Amino acid sequence: LMSLPEKAMRAIRGDRISMIFQEPMRSLSPLHRLGNQVAEVLRLHRNMGRAEAKRCVLEQFEQVGFADPVRAWRSYPFEMSGGMRQRAMIAMAMVAKPELLIADEPTTALDVTTQAQVLGLIRSLQKDTGMGVILVTHDLGVVANMAQQVVVMNKGRVMESGLAKDVLDAPAHPYTAKLFAAAPMIPQVATPARPPVRDDVILELRNVSKTYAMRAGGWRKPVTVSACQNVDLQVSRGKTLAIVGESGSGKTTCARIAMGAETPDEGGEVLFRPDKGAEPISIHNMDRTERTLFQRQAQMVFQDPYSSLSPRMRVQDALTEPMEIHGIGSAADRRDKAAEMLSWVGLDTNMLRRFPHAFSGGQRQRLSIARALTLDPRLLICDEPTSALDVSVQDQILTLLEDIRERANLSYLFISHDLAVVARIADEVAVMRAGVIVEQAPPDTLFYNPQHPYTKALIAAQPEPDINRPIDLDLVAKGAGSPQLWPEEYRFEGMQAPALRELEPGHKVRCHA
Ligand code: ADP
Ligand code: MG
């Protein structure tokens, strides 16, 4: 291929070899309707006429799972969800019936249930057409579900290659073995957990809902978005409560309300108990002293360590600033505390003079954790703290968070979209979908005996780095769709969800009696 002239290469590229990328929005034109974009491939490479191209494209749209191919034909990319755009990209790559498909992290930006559907789609199209696929991924679970052969690369070199079952069952290179050790897995659990004890609750969300009114543009009535609805949660002191759910499910909204950064709708409240047995403070009705106290005792760690640290502040200033604002200690005390916290998070104190840009992603997340710790907080609200990190770095940060929790008797409200991460760190899990908690239990109970179809779908869609535990697309399809398609006991219309019911102590499910 390298020696071919550009013209001959063009005849191969996009025709016999096609490609899909991680971020479909960048590869689709925002100005053209999807139908015309996909049809262009056929008109260029197959010299098809307008009508014939349209017929082929509609057929392809149906094959990639668009419920309404004609509507997809007329849509612009911005009118579609991430999963639908990725389907459109796949349709574009497949419509000319290539012999080889190169897919570069095709599902990395998608929710797990959408990822499962897209992977299933690539596999079934491959079976129908017999094309070869080169799949580039950082996710060993995806490898286990898709590949017959694997090549493991690190720093531009091949570390190990071979049949997927050999490499996955018995990795020979230490680098591959390390990747496996770092990959979080949903455990196969033999017994449910004991119900959580609730004698010392540090944070409590009571009947918290949040509705946003959004302008619809023009003369249309404003639309309301219900970001979360009737959320009841309790975080026990020294424990971790995790909220897990796909993008848009309302996790960040809950975190922001718990921090007092957002006010819940009428009828909801958030209570904070600084010490065991103390009178709770209502976070949205605090006087000045209570507010100052709360702002010290509850701290937040965010997903993106790049934007949560000011690029113009040296590490030392970033770490001492919160203490300065609260008027704690002398300048020398503050510097000592900053150095102490830096060593707590496993960084060297000689890094204090540096600027954040001189740190890696994992180190920056350590810095944000150190900054949160300088005020000796009791509660840490972590919103997807490891979602932007590689698996091996994620593993280190989770270990660090576990260590600090023990060391400082911290309590965590831990937010994640990844059930496997939650399986590792949480004492209790609330599964959220479209603003509503659908199931709640300790992780072992949840994995031993999941009840809600959506929880089952999330668990089934998780790609495990184990060839013997493939994704169960049937279960995904039963739970990931709209509530009207769920089994009778769970079904509901609009926002009229049934109540959460306690099935066994500590295990709640949203279902009809
Ligand atoms: P998650 O963190 O689970 O991805 P979010 O809590 O950020 O979800 O969002 C939940 C829903 O609320 C989404 O549909 C989102 O678009 C909507 N939403 C969040 N914040 C606002 C806001 N300030 N204005 C309007 N809608 C919002
Ligand atoms: Mg969020």
Key attributes of the depicted protein:
513 residues, alpha/beta, 4-stranded antiparallel beta sheet, 20 helices, 39% helix, globular, binds adenosine-5'-diphosphate, binds magnesium ion
Would you kindly provide a written description of the structure presented here, covering whatever features stand out?
The structure is a single chain. Strand 4 and strand 5 form a beta hairpin. The protein is of the alpha/beta class and 513 residues long. The strands form 4 sheets. Strands 11-12-13-8-14-15-17-16 form an 8-stranded mixed sheet, with helices on both faces. Strands 7-6-9-10 form a 4-stranded antiparallel sheet, covered by helices on one side. The relative contact order is 0.11. It is built from 20 helices and 17 strands. The longest helix has 18 residues. 39% of the residues lie in helices and 20% in strands. The site of adenosine-5'-diphosphate (ADP) has 12 residues, from strand 6, strand 7 and helix 11.
